[in-house]
Amino acid sequence: MQVQTHQFTYTVYPSTLQLQATDAALLQQALAISKTAYAPYSKFYVGAAALLSNGAIVTGTNQENASFPAGLCAERVLLSAVTSLHPNTAINTIAISYSSNLLQSNHPLSPCGVCRQSLAEYEERLQQPIRILLAGASGEVWQIAAATLLLPFAFNGGFLKKQ
Ligand code: THU
Fold first, then answer.
1. What is the pLDDT of residue 162?
2. Which residue of 14, 25, 49, 108 could cross-link 29, Cys pair, CB 3.0 to 4.6 Å?
3. Which residue owns the Cα nearest ligand 1 atom 8?
4. What are phi and psi of 95, to 5 degrees?
5. Ligand 1 in reach of 109 Cβ (< 6 A)
6. Alpha-carbon span 147 to 20, nearest angstrom
7. Strands 91-100 and 131-135, bridge-based pairing
8. Hey, whose CA ends up nearest to atom 1 of ligand 1?
9. Which residue has a Cα nearest atom 14 of ligand 1?
10. For the segment 33-87, what is each residue's pLDDT rounded down to a tens digit?
11. In-domain check, residue 3
């Protein structure tokens, strides 16, 4: 028997003030676009902004539905927009933030498991890590070097290939 340990390293910035200007601006765009989210049920407005390898910036927000499972998270709306508007283009960085009238937005948001799976697929598809910046409207910013770090033991296309 063997006990294994898994760990990963990420960077914590006290606030956006310590970020490079381009990263602070991307997070600002994520927060600004969150205000346009369609989230009448949760009133939890999520915004995501991607900086692509071609320099373009694409944004996405959560889109809820009266049939709750039909709703989509901001991250997957963003990935669909990126691949539609800029096919086969790598993503350098995704900034994710949120706003809410009901809750404080002072802690980094943690992407849901389904979005982690989708982000991991995009990384694998374009063969380039996606750097993730997570923040609320205020407070710490967490930087993760690659989306797959957020999903250890991820299921991926390799499992579907013949050995
Ligand atoms: N949500 C996102 O858009 N991204 C996340 O990473 C977590 C949750 C959305 C889904 C739903 O519309 C609302 O936030 C509350 O769960």
1. 81
2. 49
3. 73
4. -100, 135
5. yes
6. 20
7. parallel
8. 73
9. 44
10. 999 999 999 999 999 999 999 999 999 999 999 999 999 999 999 999 999 999 9
11. no
* Cα–Cα distances in angstroms (integers) from residue 15 to residues 19, 20, 45, 108, in the given order: 8, 11, 20, 11
Residue 2 lies in a domain: no
Question: How close is the Cα of 6 to the center of ligand 1, in Å?
Answer: 27
112 lines ligand 1 (CB under 6 A): yes
Give the distance (Å) from ligand 1 centre to CA of residue 73.
5
Round to whole Å and give the CA distance between 63 and 94.
18
Range of the domain at 57: 11-141
Q: Which ligand 1 atom is the nearest neighbour of the CA of 110?
A: 6
Atom from ligand 1 closest to the CA of residue 115: 6
Structural domains of the chain, count: 1
Is 75 considered catalytic here? yes
Quick one: pLDDT at residue 15?
Answer: 97
Q: Tell me the CATH number at 71.
A: 3.40.140.10
Tell me 38's DSSP state: B
What's at 128, amino acid-wise? Q
Q: Which atom of ligand 1 is nearest to 41's Cα?
A: 12
Asked if residue 4 belongs to a domain, the reply is: no
